[in-house]
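Standup, Tuesday
Yesterday: got the pipeline producing structure tokens again.
Today: sanity-check two examples.
Blockers: none.

Example 1:
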Amino acid sequence: MVPCGAQEVDQAIQSAQSAFLKWSKLSGMERARIMLEAARIIREQREDIAKVEVINNGKSISEALVDIDIAWQSIEYYAGIAGTLAGQHVQLPGGTFAYTRREPLGVCVGIGAWNYPFQIAAWKSAPALACGNAMVFKPSPMTPVTAVMLAEIYAQAGVPEGLFNVVQGGAETGSLLCQHPGVAKVSFTGSVPTGKKIMEMSSKGVKPVTLELGGKSPLIIFSDCELDNAVKGALNANYLSQGEVCCNGTRVFVQRDILPAFLEQVVKRTKAIKVGDPLLDDTRMGALISRPHLDRVLGFVTQAKKEVREVLCGGEPFIPSDPKLKGGYFMSPCVLDNCSDTMTCVKEEIFGPVMSVLPFDTEEEVLQRANNTTFGLASGVFTRDISRAHRVAANLQAGTCFINNYNISPVELPFGGYKMSGFGRENGTVTIEYYSQLKTVIVEMGDVDCQF
């Protein structure tokens, strides 16, 4: 893959600007019809897109199919909102009145991550297009393929040529996009260090940014929980997409009196996870994204062993029985027992299938420990006590709190972080605020009152 340089980036933005002038003049209902057609095409091509996503990313086909479904649901959801975008009328004294207009921003930039390539491209483009914007999207250079498929689908559905452009490349291409004077907004999903750089570069042009960054999320399991559900929640919180999920609940706090029973069940189920060919329907964990990333994740397990913590299962390179997969970036899912808050694996985002289990005694104690992090993307609590559930949710410093579940992401609900996990939101109606701007129009119906 040859990365796009200044000339290609400028060409993509100019093309998007031309398309924006046409698209923004359409009514919301006209935009909605085209977006609904794009969602229909995705549903029609669901299995083909999912297979390419597996090759693109390494996750299991069962998960990739869900990702594609969430993508078309997002486009369908914002198509439904497009026709409802409206301003407000305000009556003023003397017959004078004012109204507001919700207007698009222009050409928006989306910069995606490699863990959910197609889904993130849809999450960013759907609200942008619904509001009348154009988008230039840069996928991760690790997963360049499926964003191009989305661009082809939008074109097939009937958007103006250039409305959703894809540019390929790494940091240099991203920098060119953020600093281009023709860009009105930047939305980024990725790491905290890169997010800081994007924020700095965008600030030079006073561009608004949406940042969905990393996490080290707490999952709190109280002794009065439904244990089987809590175990399943912990598995969902740690092992989806090989653990390469920013909102994963990788710090699993378990109340001390149920810790042995929890560990017994979670280790048994973790050992039973089928790792291997991600294109097989019964595979539940595919390959990590790259060799350097696999080595990094395994390095966290090695460090945990040095800190005298027991590895209850996994944490080793995994070699599938299929000889064609022997060079793949597989590892066995890992459970670390009796972890402490000061351990490296508890403080830093691993982004792999490693669950750190920490015992706790009281609600007050665990809340203090759970919030003792620079991140704030997600959190979770399992308990039968409904008062406690809402009390804990209110006190957890995170953009999302799951009660008696984990890692579900309906497109109707806003998603985003507190603290260094970023700001702005994706999904839900609130995202319209981040892809539009408000103009106030004041209409004087009488004579002008002048003091001069």
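Example 2:
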Amino acid sequence: MAKPILFVTRELPAEAQQRLESLTSVEVRQHKSVSAISRHDLLRGVHDADGLLCMLSDKINEELLQACGKSLKVISTCSVGYDHVDTQKVKEHGLLLGYTPDVLTDATADTTVLLALMASRRAKEALDIVNSGQGGFSLSTGLGMQFTGKTLGIVGFGRIGCATAHRLAPFGFSRILYTASRPHEERARPLSALHVPLAQLLEESDLVCICCPLNQQTTNMFSREAFMKMKRTAILVNSARGAIVNQEDLLEALETGRIFAAGLDVTVPEPLPADHPLVRHPKCVVLPHIGSATEETRNAMANLAIDNALAGIFGKPLKAQVQQ
């Protein structure tokens, strides 16, 4: 009897890849590359698959689901976000959808803090000075902002937002504000964090960290209107999803001094072209979506994605399932 087919759209981190290659209960078909699979190869590769293990870069829509055929049982995305998946179509096709929450909380929160520190202390400009071999100690140039006595604003107070606040609190913030769809009193209590409307958070925060999911309500949440509410000394950090920030409006805010600086781990597209104005702007730090990029986290994500895929193929409960 033929084994079920698991199609994997990317090479996995070493530990998880070794596990994948040792599986005997399924036939593994894989785009064995660190680069994203082309749409053509993806549509061809999923044919007759029983399970699909995909990445954020893989658009899961009706076209793909039609290409899969009737054997597909489960889609397992190696990510905590699933805005690349048309969940309504997945539901209509009667498929299970797995994802990888929890395991990337710490790594992503760490990256958010990294961006906050780099942006606040103008690290990009400082590194450029070092790399150019020019400059030295100056008492009055290249001055950044410190966090002592300032107000921290967290947009989205889920696992990552809360972990980010806990990491940043010891830097001396006098107040922590957060905005979310509802108050999170138990999470907020140890931080003495206050649940406030977005407008108030923007007006009062010195550092604004975006940690919310991408959906219809948060797409373009940070546009010119939002930047006009922020302090001129404010710093914006986005480690969530690129489409939450209108990049043209962010560039304008930086160019006009509407805000002090920005740090981005996520953009539209990814990666941004090397000559993109935000990449070249001295007060904008751009990273290539490394939020979860640690050995521990990426292997944990991939192993959970494998677990979800195998469970769905063999009719068992998924360890982490998106409730549709």
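Quick observation on example 2: The mean pLDDT is 96. Residues 279 and 286 are 6 Å apart (CA to CA).
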